[in-house]
Write a structure and sequence with these properties.
Blueprint (H helix, E strand, L loop, with lengths): L5 H21 L8 H9 L12 H32 L4 H20 L22 H14 L1 H18 L2 H24 L1 H13 L1 H21 L1 H12 L8
Helix pairs in contact: 1-6, 1-7, 1-10, 2-3, 3-5, 3-6, 3-7, 4-6, 4-9, 6-7, 7-8
Length: 249
Amino acid sequence: MFGIDLIDAGMLPALFVAALAGLLSFLSPCVLPIVPPYLAYMGGVSVNQMQGAERRGPVVLAAGFFVLGLSTVFLILGIAASALGRALLQYQDWFVTIAGIVIMVFGAHFVGVFRIPFLDREARVDAGDQGGSAFGAYVLGLAFAFGWTPCLGPILGAILSMAASEADLARGTVLLGGYAVGLGIPFLLVAAFFPALQGPMAWMKRHMGRIERISGLLLWTVGLMMLTGQFAAFSFWLLESFPILATLG
């Protein structure tokens, strides 16, 4: 059908979910509030100086290297998760079932059905005085990816579970690349258009609870789809509705 086998078709919604998960991670309570001061520090300017177009160049450059740093960590995690799934290939059906259950538990955490205490903590890594340089921004990106992992745990864990269920290094890496894109692009947009985005960011901060619940609902739905095998059905629906997607296979 459409020249795409089942697992290829299944990648379409999985990649979309991974990118959306990265965006929701950016909007989480432990990331969004620290974005402006973090970007200012990396660019060697103050938050007020980010208002001026002439001072945003270094900030955008630093943001690019920062995103490269965090993407490095997430891609390595994707390779590791996929390698684990490949090693356990004979237990793939059980692996997908367990991954679906874990993702649904993470979703319930975000929705507020119950709270998992260690997922509300931030284990930040001190990267030292690394502000004001491209290399420093890259190091801070590495530190951010490692240090904020407990905070990003529910969403990142869901994407890692999906990567492991693929049991293919290339596919798992692509999924974590999608997550890195969803998380990293907003950093670049804020760095480039900080004055214009201050209003929307303030609105998002006021609605953190709603954003968390949306994240939880997304995770719970993804977990349920993995349990019931509906990812493939959703993929074929996408292909039937948007035939141009078939060229991606």
